[in-house]
Each structure stands twice: as structure tokens, then as C-alpha cells.
Design a protein that fits this description.
Layout lengths: L54 H12 L7 H6 L3 H33 L6 H10 L9 H38 L7 H7 L1 H7 L5 H26 L18 H12 L2 H9 L13 H24 L16 H33 L8 H35 L7
């Protein structure tokens, strides 16, 4: 166990950061060796960031983390809830998500005071909560941290697979509409995405990803504007739609909304790399500002999308747009570009675990070569997983069409 990993026995039991507004530690730990005259450890003062992120940049990152392809499924979510339950449920889900994220960040900041560490990631926070918690749970700290670490890596690798499929399928649908004679398979489009994805994932600092997130946010506004244009054409009365759907469909609504809003893996990296982390929580704060915008957009998009298309609304509302109009197809391509620009931000989460492992090396030799090799290898693994899924899906479709054909 290294010196910085040893449990700290000498710290202020009140653990208050009086110099930072919006940060009041409520954690109280019993200790026999407390020096009452010792100044409380301030993790914010000990963060040495080579490329700190601005407050505005942090808001942009959070918006991009929460505003993705999931918002296109909000009209479908409203179909499973009805208009009234949809509006109430979206608001409640947003409040719960915001509250839980705030709890995680506040707990992480308090644990940084106790452990005397400048910052902690999501897995480190979960492990430290056990390590510095009740005595009978303290031995579980390392295990919990490891489980959360690998669970987050697996989760975000899966997210990257979904992003790759979305990018490839969007380009395929648009190009097939313009040039039906080409008929290129989805696997080929996935392979064509390899080089661009490898290039964007070589960016290592969140600060340098801000322009990509900002561009993606601008483009997604354009996509929303185009989609809303088609939504408001001959918009029917909300009275023609179901106000309250069957209770048995509500779980589908909840799962869709939570999937769309959830971005917990990106939250801690964003907070840890802020130039002014005390501005993350509080009112207005980075978190509250971003989530108010997210909740409002989700509610508006889901409400009007469902009112326009009703029960005919599809999993992604872009599929309801006219397939013979270039504006609609262009919006689909722009959404694919939005997901591409967001890819590196999601990729940052599994790489955080890899970087912590690399930090244990005694030498920094060949650092750039190792980073490029690992990042390229991870993207190749994602591409391989995607192609395997596409092959299985194709075989499943062929089997459905002709049950006599073998699956393999």
C-alpha cells in the first residue's frame, strides 16, 4: 500500500471547506487523534490540472453527455405513458437524476477531504464510501471499487457499440435513399467509420473536446429544428392522443427516459477537471443549469412528437420523417455527425480506468506510443463487437425469412 493510499487517522472531524461557497461537508468521522487546530484539507486547492476546463465548457460537456440519440426516442416514450404521465414522469425523472448526481458529487468532495486526495472518480468514490464508512463494510472498499470500475468500462464499451451502429446505419439509410443501386452492407459502413473514430479518440484532455461538444450541441439544435418543423406541420390536437396509457407500459417509458438522461460516467471526470469545481453544485451551478435545459428539451420533444405521430411514432422519431425529402435525410446525417462528435466524450470514461493503470508504471517511456496503441485497439474491439452483432442480426433475419437455413 502506497503512502497516499493509507487510511488517514489525523484529520478534522468537522471536515468543512469554509473557503468554497456551495461546498459544506456534513461527514463526521470519529477519531482519537484529532488535531483541532489543524486546518481542514481543501481538495480544490490541491488539484494540479494541466488543462483545466472552464465553467462554460463543463456545461457544454454535460449537455452533450445527456443530449444524444436518446432524445429521439422521447416521443416513443410518451406513447408508452400518455401525455399527462409523460410530462409528470419526465420532470420527476429529471429531478431524481439531478439529485442523485448531486449526491455522488457531494459525497466525492467530502470523501476527498477525509482521504486527503484532490479528486476521485466515480469508482474511487464508491470504494472510498465503503473504506471510510461503517467498520464492518470497510474491508469491501477495494472490491466495490474494482466492480464499479469494470462495470463502467463494460457499460461504456456497449454505449460506444451503439454509437457506432447509429452512425453507420444513419449513413446507410441516407445513402440508400439517394443511391439505391449501391446497396452497401451495414458492416462496410461500420468499417468505414474506423479511421475517423480512431482519430477523434486520440484527444486525451476534456478541455480539447469542448469545441467538439459545442459543435455537436449546435448541430443537434439544427436537427431538433428540422424535426420540429415536420412535427408542427398540421399538428393535431393533444386531445386526440391518450392522456394516460396503461400502467403495464409505464416501465418502458421509465427505462427510455432514464437511458436518455443518464450520463453519470461523464459527471465525475467533468467535475474533476474544472478550473472552479466549487461552481459545479449549487444554484445555478453547472449541474442545475445543464439539467434544466435537458429536462425542458426532453419534455417538449416528447410531447409534440407524440402529439404529431401518435401510436405510429417509431423508436427514433427521425424514422417518421419523410424519406423522399433531402432536408429530412440531411437531418439524419447531421445526427450521425452529432454522435460521432460525442464519441470521444463517451470514450473518455473507459480510458480513465486505463490511464489509472498506466499511472502505476515506473517510467513514462513510450507514453505516446502506448496511448495511441491502446486507444486504437479499443476502437478495433468496438468495431469487431459491432460487426459480430450485425452478423448475428443478419442471420437471425435470414432464419426468420427461411427457417430451413441454419443460423451458423
Amino acid at each position: 500500500m502506497t503512502e497516499k493510499e493509507k487510511p488517514v487517522d489525523n484529520f478534522n472531524s468537522t471536515a468543512e471547506l469554509t473557503t468554497n461557497t456551495g461546498f459544506d461537508s456534513t461527514l463526521s468521522i470519529d477519531s482519537k487523534d484529532i488535531d483541532k487546530d489543524e486546518k481542514a484539507y481543501n481538495p480544490f486547492e490541491h488539484r494540479q490540472l494541466e488543462h483545466p476546463n472552464s465553467t462554460l465548457g463543463s456545461i457544454v460537456h454535460l449537455l452533450k453527455a445527456c443530449l444524444g440519440s436518446g432524445i429521439l426516442a422521447m416521443p416513443s416514450a410518451f406513447k408508452n405513458s400518455g401525455i399527462v404521465i409523460g410530462m409528470i414522469g419526465t420532470l420527476l425523472a429529471g429531478v431524481i437524476c439531478t439529485h442523485t448526481v448531486a449526491l455522488v458529487v457531494r459525497t466525492s468532495q467530502e470523501l476527498c477531504v477525509i482521504a486527503k486526495k484532490p479528486s476521485m472518480g466515480f469508482a474511487e468514490t464508491c470504494g472510498a464510501a465503503f473504506t471510510y464508512g461503517p467498520k464492518r463494510l470497510q474491508s469491501w472498499g477495494a472490491f466495490v471499487k474494482t466492480v464499479i470500475d469494470y462495470s463502467m468500462v463494460a457499460t461504456y464499451i456497449s454505449v460506444l457499440c451503439v454509437y457506432t451502429v447509429f452512425i453507420a446505419s444513419s449513413f446507410k439509410e441516407a445513402i440508400d435513399g439517394w443511391y439505391p443501386a449501391l446497396n452497401i452492407s451495414i458492416q462496410v459502413y461500420c468499417v468505414l467509420c474506423l479511421v475517423p473514430l480512431v482519430l477523434i479518440c486520440q484527444i486525451r484532455n476534456l478541455k480539447y473536446l469542448v469545441p467538439f461538444s459545442a459543435t455537436a450541441n449546435i448541430l443537434i439544435v439544427v436537427v431538433f429544428a428540422v424535426t420540429m418543423y415536420y412535427i408542427f406541420i398540421d399538428l393535431p390536437s393533444p386531445k386526440e392522443r391518450e392522456m394516460v396509457a396503461s400502467v403495464t407500459q409505464w416501465p418502458l417509458f421509465v427505462s427510455t427516459v432514464i437511458f436518455a438522461m443518464e450520463g453519470i460516467g461523464v459527471v465525475m471526470p467533468v467535475e474533476n477537471e474544472m478550473a472552479h469545481p466549487e461552481k459545479f453544485l449549487g444554484c445555478p451551478g453547472v449541474l442545475n443549469t445543464a439539467m434544466v435545459i435537458v429536462i425542458s428539451l426532453y419534455g417538449v420533444f416528447g410531447f409534440f412528437g407524440y402529439v404529431q405521430f401518435g401510436d405510429a411514432v417509431k423508436g427514433s422519431i427521425t424514422l417518421n420523417l419523410p424519406q423522399d425529402q433531402w432536408v429530412a435525410q440531411g437531418a439524419k446525417l447531421l445526427m450521425a455527425l452529432v454522435i460521432y462528435l460525442s464519441f470521444a466524450l463517451q470514450f473518455y470514461v473507459p480510458m480513465e480506468k486505463v490511464n489509472r493503470l498506466l499511472a502505476k508504471r515506473k517510467s513514462d517511456r513510450f507514453e505516446n506510443v502506448i496511448q495511441v496503441g491502446i486507444r486504437t485497439s479499443l476502437i478495433i474491439i468496438v468495431e469487431h463487437c459491432v460487426n459480430l452483432m450485425n452478423v448475428v442480426e443478419d442471420k437471425g433475419q435470414n432464419s426468420t425469412a427461411d427457417s430451413s437455413k441454419p443460423l451458423i
